[in-house]
Structure formats: structure tokens, C-alpha cells
Amino acid sequence: MKFGKSICVLNVGGTRYAFTREVIRDFPLRRVSRLHACATEKEVLELCDDYDRDRNEFFFDRHAQAFVFIMLYVRSGKLRFVPGVCELSFYTEMLYWGLESAHLDSCCQKRLDERMSDIGLDTLSEGDIVLSGDEPQTPDESAPPIALTGRAKWLEKMRKTFEEPNSSIAAQLLASVSVIFVIISMIMLCASTLPDWDTAKRNTVEEHRIVEAVCIGWFTAECIVRFLLARDKWDFIRHPLNIIDVIAITPYYVTMAMARAGMPGAGLGVAGVILRVLRMMRVFWLMKLARHFLGLQTLGLTLRRCYREMVMLLVFVCVAMAIYSALAQLLEHGLDLGAQNQDYASIPAAAWWVIISMTTVGYGDVYPVTIGGRVLGGMCVVSGIVLLALPITFIYHSFVQCYHELRMRSARYARSLSTEMLQ
User: Fold this and answer.
1) Where are the membrane-spanning stretches (predicted)?
2) What is the mean pLDDT of the chain?
3) Contact indicator for 349, 343 with CB cutoff of 8 Å
4) Which of 54, 124, 231, 263 could form a disulfide with 128 if both were Cys (CB 3.0 to 4.6 A apart)?
């Protein structure tokens, strides 16, 4: 419509903001920018709650404090929840103004995912939340993130391609190729332990070397590119999966260096042992699959969040093992009542029996023969079941929560990917 004045006023919950026409036209919030394209006052009232033509003022009956934080995002590019405001209420305000959960900082995205999971909204998409007076958002109308230069936008797109397998079609293709190389590497590693492998390797030595070199070259190039694209190089170095990548890649180059130094054989004493150990370390390539599979990501996130419970479980087991192993050694060997059970000649030897009994494995290679030892064995098994069950509840709930969070994040990427394919 033809604005009466060059200055437009937004009145959000009683707080007034003044902007020029040009700012309104290019405003990052979709609802506000659409005001500039309105041809009639009726179209304006579809976007706001009231309009004062004389003062050129647009009224929005929305949460004023939430809009303050949204304006901070417009200015600084960082969107966080309002302290003391429900996450879902703020999320509703975000959707009203044309923002998505992807605009939130990662810490706030986690809080939103947890909140939606708690109330059973983990299977709903953001498009399922319908706001009164608002139209469905199309991909072309989505609010853009903070403007980036051409080079910065390209670097960010490349970073997402390598770090977030579900962020685009190219990222999915790249992840698929990486998984194929991991599978090929694992097949070769397993086959190298077969009795007939040395004969087959001598017959096709060049083919084996080429396949191994190609796999290592891919992993090395992928690791270097991800390091160059990382926002924070120090955080990249400290990340556990990146450390595993380096551990898995390094043995190949160490092996090649040792071979060039004249130590290629496996029967060269210490050097041969080192070579065999380094070759077997390639099994860590399997950990690369954690980047692409939700189950492994859930397991890793659960272990990281439940380290206190895991330490508590370890303490329980160690204390019980120390008590029962000392008593078992005393009853089976230390009292010297008749024949001594040599399997319990020392406390460390008895500790092996305690740990397999507490975990209810019971290999049967070590067992008590005295009446007191058998009674102690029954107590050991029962107490092991109780001690192991105590922290399991906390770990289980954390696992479920982590799974819901990662599944919602994956669903967000899937929706973004669908939008990209439609465009």
C-alpha cells in the first residue's frame, strides 16, 4: 500500500519501533517485510492486528519481551530464549514472525527439542503448528539468516556438507561414499586375518595396495578438508570423533615409514609387534560410522551425558569386588581347612571370579568348593544384580531423551532437504 509517511511504526505489545520504508522492505522477519507489499488496508490487517493510517502505525498484539529478543537476533544474529518464558511460547512467537527453530542457537535448540519431547511433540513438524492469521510459509518466503558474503556463504555450505550428512543431497552422497570406503576397509582388515590371506595377497599384491591407498587417501582428504572448513580449529582437534579419525589414519603412514626404513616384515621382534598393533588400530574406522547413523550417535551422546552414573556404577562394582574377592580368598584358600582351592590363591585371582559372578556371566572356569564359598557366591550374584540395576534407570531415561533429540534434529534436516529438492 502507499504508506502515508516515510517512517513506519511497529507497536508490539505496547513497545514502539520506528523504521524507514526501505528497512521495512528488507526486514529479516518475513511478517514485517510482507507489509511493504500490501496493496490495501485489508491485506495489512491480515498481517497485523490493527493499523493507524494517520500515524502509519502497525499494531501487533504479541509478547513484547519476546520481540525484544527477536530484535536482538535481527541485529546480532544470535537467537536465544527469553529467561522465564516457556520454550514453546517463545517458539510460537518465532513462528509468528517467520523464524524457524534452525535460527536458534544450538543450546536453545536442545532445550526446545527436550521440551517438545516431554509433551509428545517429537513426531510433529514445525509446519504442523498453525498460527491464527498466518499463512503457511513457503520456502521462498523463509526468513534468511544473517547475511553472509559470497565466500563466507560458500564456506558455510561446504562445512555443512562435510559435517552434517543430512543437510543436503551432496552431503548425503558424500556420507554414502565415506560409508562405502569404511565397509571396504573393514572387509580388507577382517580378510587379512584369514589363513589364506598371505597367499592371495602375494598373487594380487598391487590390487591390495591400490585399494588400501585409495581408502586411506579418501579418509585423509576428508579429514584435512573438514579441518580447513572448521570454524574453530581447536574445538575440531579436541572432538572425540576427529581424534579417532587421526588414530585410524596414522597407522598406515607409520607403517609406510617403517617399511621405507627397512622394517617391513612382521617377524622383526619389537618392530613386527608394533606393525601388527598399528594395522589392527584401523578397526577404529568403524567409529566413523557414528557420523552417519542415529543409533551410534545416540549411544555416544548418552555415554557423554551419563558419565556420572557410569562412574557411580564403576565405584559400586569395584567396592563389591574388593569385599567379595577378599572374603572368597579367605574362605577358599586362606583358612587352610582341608584342601586349598588354588583358583583362589590370591585376592586378584578371586577378583576374576567375583566380576564374572556379579555380571551373571559365570564361565565355570573358577568356582568355589567350600560351603562358605558357595554361600558367598550366591550373595555375590544377587548383590551384583541389584548394584548393576540401580544406575540403569538413569541411563535408560537419558538414552531415550538423547534419541528423541537426535531424531528431531534429523527430521529438521530432512525437511530442509525436501525443501531443497522442491526448489
Assistant:
1) 169-189, 265-285, 306-324, 344-363, 375-399
2) 77
3) yes
4) 124
Cα Rg of the chain, angstroms = 31
Residues in contact with 422: Cβ distance below 8 Å, sequence separation at least 6, in sequence order? 139
Domains of the chain: 7-119 (3.30.710.10), 151-292 (1.20.120.350), 299-415 (1.10.287.70)
Helices first, then strands: H and E counts in the chain: 18, 4
- ∠ Cα 79 82 87 (to 5°): 90
Q: Report which residue type is found at 139.
A: P
CA pair distance 167, 238, nearest whole angstrom: 23
141 pLDDT higher than 50? no
Residue 313 near residue 306 (C-beta atoms within 8 A)? no
Do the beta carbons of residue 46 and residue 133 sit within 8 Å? yes
Taking a C-beta distance cutoff of 8 angstroms, is the pair 421, 169 a contact?
yes
Interior/surface letters 86-100, b for 16+ CB within 10 angstroms, e for the rest: ebeebbebbbbbbbb
- Rounded distance between C-alpha atoms, residue 225 and residue 322, angstroms: 49
Q: What is the pLDDT of residues 199-220, one digit of tens each?
A: 655 555 567 778 888 888 888 8
Q: How many residues does the chain have?
A: 423
Tens-place pLDDT, residues 166-200: 777 888 888 888 888 888 888 887 877 777 666 65
pLDDT of 376 reads 92
What span, in angstroms and rounded, lies between the C-alpha atoms of 358 and 377?
Answer: 9
Rounded Cα distance between 380 and 319, Å, is 12
Q: Which three cell numbers stand for residue 405?
A: 533429540
Of 45, 42, 38, 13, residue with least CA distance to 24: 38
| Dist. CA 108–CA 78, nearest whole Å | 11
User: Which has the minimum average pLDDT: 64-73, 148-157, 363-372, 387-396?
Assistant: 148-157
